[in-house]
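## Example record

The block below lists the input lines for one assembly entry, exactly as stored, with component labels intact.
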Amino acid sequence: MFGRNLLICSFLSCVVLLSGSAVAAGPNVEVVVGPDAPPLETLAAEELAAQFRTLFEAEPSIVQSESNKAVPRVLIGSPETNPAVKEVIGANWPKLSKQGHLIRSLQVNGQPALVVGGGSPVATLWAVYELGQHFGMRYTAHGDQIPAVKPEFKLSGIDKTLEPQHKQRIWRTVNDFPIGPESWGLAEQKQMLRQLAKLKYNRLMISVWPWQPFVDYEFQGTKKQTATLFFGEEFPVSGDIPGRAAFRGAKVFTNPDFAKAKNYEQMTAAGVKLLSGIIDEAHRLGMRVGLSISPLEFPKEFAAVLPDAPEPHGLNKLVIGPGPEQTPQDQQLLELVRTKIRAYIEAYPDIDDIYLTMPEFPAWVAHAEQSWDQLDAKVGLAETLKYQDAIKAARERKTIASGDRGENAVKGNIAAIDFLHNLDPNGRLFVSPKGHEIKGVLTAMDPALYPIADKLIPEYVELLHFVDYTARRVLANKELLAKLPPAAAKRSMIIVTLADDNVGVLPQLATGDIHQLLAETKKLGWAGFSTRYWLVGDLDPTLHYLSRASFDPGVTPKSAYNDLFDGICGPGVSQRTTLAFEAIEKATAIVDKHGLGFTFPVQGMVMKHYDSSPAPDWWKEASDAYTEAMVEMYRGQTRAGKAGRNYILYHAKRHEFAVTYFAALTALRAAAEAQKAGDKEKAYKEMDKAVEALYNATKCLGEVAVSNSDRGLIAVMGHYGFRPLMKEFDRIEAEE
Amino acid sequence: MPSCKRRAKLFTGLLLAAVTCLGSVAAEGFGDDWRQFRGPNCSGISRSEVSLPTKFSFEDKVLWSHEVGDGIASAVIADGRCYCTGLLGDTETEGIFVVYCFDATTGTEHWRREFTTGDLPRITRPNSHASSTPATDGERVYVYFSTLGLMVLDCKTGQDVWKEPIEQPQYLLGWGAASSPVLVNDMVVFAQDDDLNPFIAAWEAKSGSLQWRTERPDMLGGYAAPVLCTANGRTDIVLAGSGKMKGYDPSDGKELWTCNSLLRTVMTTPVVAGDRIFITIQSYGDTDRHLKPALLEWKDTNQDGKLSREEVPRVFWKKFDKGDANKDDLLVDQEIDAAFQSPNNMVGGGNIIQSIRGGGMGDVTKTHLDWNLDSRAPSNLSSPLVVDGRLFLVKKGGLSSCFDAEDGKTLWKLKRIRNLGDYYASPVYGDGKIYVTGENGFVVVLENGSKLKRLAKNDMGESILATPSIADGKLFFRTRNRLIVVGEES
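Predicted structure tokens for the full assembly:
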């Protein structure tokens, strides 16, 4: 009996021991927020708790005051928002700007503790994300990457205080083309916004266009009737198009939030719901939100109220603008624009900013000189810059808009700015129905007008500058940036192109050029930057660089690349992947320099290369760079741990896409050459090669598609690339 | 010998082989069962006279279909029951491995068994963890999974009969497991050529008692399934591997012969017709490209021309140490060869199609290699089909080729079947038709003949890597996530 009891006791002890072991997975941590913590600090606490669970299998409990338990603690907030912070560090709390944030180790009741806080609630949130980064989390466009090497749970030895190098960090969303976030539904937009918060973006710019389904208005009996995405194009994705696995059986590619919308009303309702959801989520994450519109462009049905509007222009000819008979003082035009702006503000009363963008290819130039005189009379321009000098500067500069295009650009700008001066004489247009003032931002002022920017644009309006398509091109003309007077520079942001639609669908990086450009604008006292891109999946290296460099002047593109991949993949991988990304930068610069529009994602994007002239030398240079990138990525992949391998595979397949795409175009050229020479057999063989290469290129994308813009790219490649190519191949085969 | 007599000899051989093979395959059952990878003797041939559809799709002529989880293993069919595997849940870290039993006619689920996989090893896409095709003799179904070993379940109830833990395969380049068991007499035979401990073994099918295990130390990673060849009065187990085709005695696993004519990486399964064994191989690189260049290209992450211990997976460190002659913790030049590739088998890459006669003894390289073609036709993964004296193959891009099995004469070469993309599934034959399955989910149907003639192109809706199975007038397509069975409606 004694022996049996002993056996039972032993068994029970084992059960107790095992149960105890099973429960105590990771450390217990107290996360202390203030009793009246603002919502963003409550969110910060929740995010920290979630990260600790993921990283350390910790058992965090969120409390409003410290307990007397002997546990490690994290105190969230500032002395103003959290009494616990005030108690432990109040006297030593540094002077922080509203964006400044800190992480500091100390001891509380003999236990290791951290203060994680900032100069404002959103800065406190950033401090939490900074702590995650410290422990190895990496924030990428498609989601968080957990460190390959599990970090040690150690709260001691951290002392970081961060202040922004670039105070305005604006992210653009929606915009146009199926390969960009125009194809994202709200779920995907929200997911990206959460990542942007982790990357410390403080502003969101929702860029929308006249033909899109995001607003409804009527003017003098003419109703808006156009409400379309993707420039009105439809992208069938069924059948044997390459990469169709990415669509999981869908027959047509679409933005999922619009899948059921069948008419104008339904499209517009879906559009308003989408943008409202984006605005709400961005606000929840502490961002300012602005809407970017093109005030002087309208869907073509408004020709009825624009008496001599030129023919519709732009892709698929969806927009019209004012004609030569309408002056910048034209009351009907002014009222039309006011109606449009009011409609946007009423649909989205919570926006903070409105960006008014100048047309890229203005046709409204007839009144430029008259407008100049008007403005001169109003604000005194001539003492700084003469009209003819502005025209001359625009013609002679080396940016993409030079010569006749440059002259038109600056004339269109002058007329538009004159018009805007007349738009809101009573100062009541940019007021939300909710009562707050909506701040204005003028986008794409012509660089020829920079010397007079402070006179032309009131000081309460910010300036967002385009200058040229890519950072490389802007840097080649950086003397233009210095022409902005300091009063204008300090409220200016530069548009940094992370990936250009002219370079197109190929993987792109321009981090090195962006690094130099931002150094330049910072030197000149500019306030920050705004991003320009379409496909987002390739951009993690630049996103990581921007996020780190925005708060640390010592960060370089290479150090950012290494930091990103060391975190995700563990040791020994980043030396390969950094080489890969440097090769992508090289390829991007080559294509940008020589091939503007090379893979612009529109009809004819592939068949335009069906040309019997020899392929230019730069094709091989760029293709070799993409090949180098692909090889290095695959090399890195064999070394990476499990999670890192899938992450790297995404990039490797994108690089493989580029290599195979070039192979397709090279074979297409050879086919055209053979056709011209009358060698039908060779033409057939080369065309066969081109078809297979394009198929394989697109299939690479299908194997790793993550976002809807990835799928949009596959749809574009199928519809604009593969099908027209197959059609020509079938024709040649029939001849054979 | 005049060609007509040679053809007659071949045909007789074929007939003999067919009878012998059927006799060698365990258990009676429905005449056109499909009991293991690629059916009878892994040949891909159904000799049933029941008609098979030419045109079908994931929406047309579907008799039944089920979601079965991620997987690339073929379904197997015996005695009116269909067995299929899949991986549910997280397919990266730890999932649920499922073995299904469906009624082959109605699709009614008779039973399913679920197994927690434990920590899943790394594999290379598009491989799946549920990659091994089961085998069945109608009494038991034999299933392999990398973390679970060989599991044998009762066909009627799905209950455990016996289990054999098998060490997980290890591949230097991280490919992942994909070997399939086959049935020989009253045994289940399983071959696993990995880069660490390659072997072939046989267990008694009923009891699981190990009959023999033969190590294959001069092999590198490969995926050929064992096949049977009857020649010279005996039936050998034939296994293709790195550099060598070998014949083994089924009774004790002893190596009887070797033909050292193959290439470095063998992922295709040979096909037997008569007393001939046909193999098609595409192995990356040229003949000088032994393993070392591949390792230096992909594993040498700092590209210093040396392999450090950190650059080699831990499981290979013993081999690393074996090769590290000067003990400096680096492998350089010949040290790499010494560590990982057998000095008796320093073979490179290339493309070959070969016909090897069975029934030899010892080294038959010079005596039994009937013909060899150095041809761009082969695929690295899709095995050939030999039917009616013709050897048919397909590769990436839908490029098909056909050769006379007797002498390797080209009937057609690298002609497109008008379905682009990758080809992982092997072609199968039934009812006078050849079914060629592309990874893009389209199945091209060709007329069996000496000219390429396309009959149909059918959309199965999603990616397919698994070779289709044929049984009872039905085609069983295991797409990436579903099992779809098509046939003419009765």
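The first helix of chain B runs from residue 3 to 24. The interface with chain A takes residues 92-93, 122, 125-126, 173-174, 297-299, 301-303, 310-311, 397, 416, 419-422, 440-442, 457, 459, 461-463, 480 of chain B (CB under 8 Å).
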